[in-house]
Each structure stands twice: as C-alpha cells, then as structure tokens.
C-alpha cells in the first residue's frame, strides 16, 4: 500500500494552551507559527507517523509583556531553544472516533514522553475537492517537567503561575497529491 502524506492547514488549526494565573483564573495563549505532518499507509491512520514543531517566538497571550517574559530564559528561552517539537512513537486506534497519541515532547532541550487522547473527526472532501482530516487533542502537562520553573509567591499564599498547562489543539490536515 502506498504511503500518504498529510500537511497541516494552518488557517483551520490552532495550538492553544491555558495556565492558571493567581491560582483562580486561566490565561489562554496560542502558537501562531507551527508546522505538522502526518504520514499514513493509504488513508489508515492507525500507526500514523506524526511530527509537529512550534516556533516559540510566535507565542501569543494577547499581552506583549507576558509574551516577552514567556520567550525569555525564565520560561521557554527562545533565544537558545527557538522551537518546541513533538514526534509520535504511537498513534493507536481506540474506536472510529478516538485515538491515543504517544510521543516525545521536546521543550527547552528537554524531551519527555507524553500520551494524549485524540478525537478523530474522520476524512472528508471540502468544497474545493481537497481531502481533509481533523484531529482534536486535549491534555495536560506540568511545565516544571521541562524546566519552565519560574514563579512568584503571592502575599496571600499560593503562586502567580500554575504548574499545570492545559492543551487544546485543533488540527486540520490536507492530503497531499
């Protein structure tokens, strides 16, 4: 069976995250520049090869000062580590709509194996004749596992920035000829 390559459609995808601020509200952000590819056997996504990279410089939380702090050595250290990457080691089918993805997430030069549930929305043809597939990924990571340790204690107790990062990723891929 021939291999099929799928490229990300960035106009219909979003790499989002949320982190608690002052222990009680969420601050949302996203990466504006990223790339991802999937390689499958035909149109079968079981055991697909999936790779992703995101440009740290493109981080956007709707606040320039916060974005610059996230790019600094206190967090992502964009100067020395300009990209975060993910390479799947497994893409396992649970049922027609659910998969599980496992792979190495590399942030700030630290690679850790993570597993996330994936909602597979199926394969369809758009109005312009392009074959598309949609994936939704939600998960959680602890930012300290990758050396993103900066924080500030609050006078009232607790910390300024939560350790848990919630991921909300919507991906649309186009089948390549």
TrEMBL record:
Ranges in coiled-coil conformation: none
Residue ranges of domain Lipid/polyisoprenoid-binding YceI-like in the record:
5-174
Q: InterPro entries from the entry?
A: Lipid/polyisoprenoid-bd_YceI, TTHA0802/YceI-like_sf
Q: Which Pfam families is this protein grouped with? A: YceI
- Matching Gene3D superfamilies: Lipid/polyisoprenoid-binding, YceI-like (2.40.128.110)
Protein name listed in UniProt: Lipid/polyisoprenoid-binding YceI-like domain-containing protein
């Amino acid at each position: 069976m021939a291999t099929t390559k799928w490229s990300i459609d960035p106009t219909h995808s979003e790499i989002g995250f949320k982190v608690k601020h002052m222990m009680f509200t969420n601050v949302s952000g996203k990466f504006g520049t990223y790339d991802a590819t999937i390689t499958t056997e035909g149109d079968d996504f079981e055991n697909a090869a999936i790779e992703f990279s995101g440009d740290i410089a493109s981080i956007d939380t709707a606040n320039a000062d916060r974005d610059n702090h996230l790019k600094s050595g206190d967090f992502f250290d964009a100067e020395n580590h300009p990209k975060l990457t993910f390479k799947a080691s497994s893409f396992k089918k649970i049922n027609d709509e659910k998969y599980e993805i496992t792979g190495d997430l590399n942030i700030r030069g630290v690679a850790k194996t993570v597993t996330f549930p994936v909602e597979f929305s199926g394969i369809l043809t758009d109005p312009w004749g392009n074959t598309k597939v949609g994936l939704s990924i939600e998960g959680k990571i602890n930012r300290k596992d990758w050396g993103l340790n900066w924080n500030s204690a609050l006078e009232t107790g607790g910390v300024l920035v939560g350790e848990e990062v919630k991921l909300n990723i919507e991906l649309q891929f186009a089948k390549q000829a």
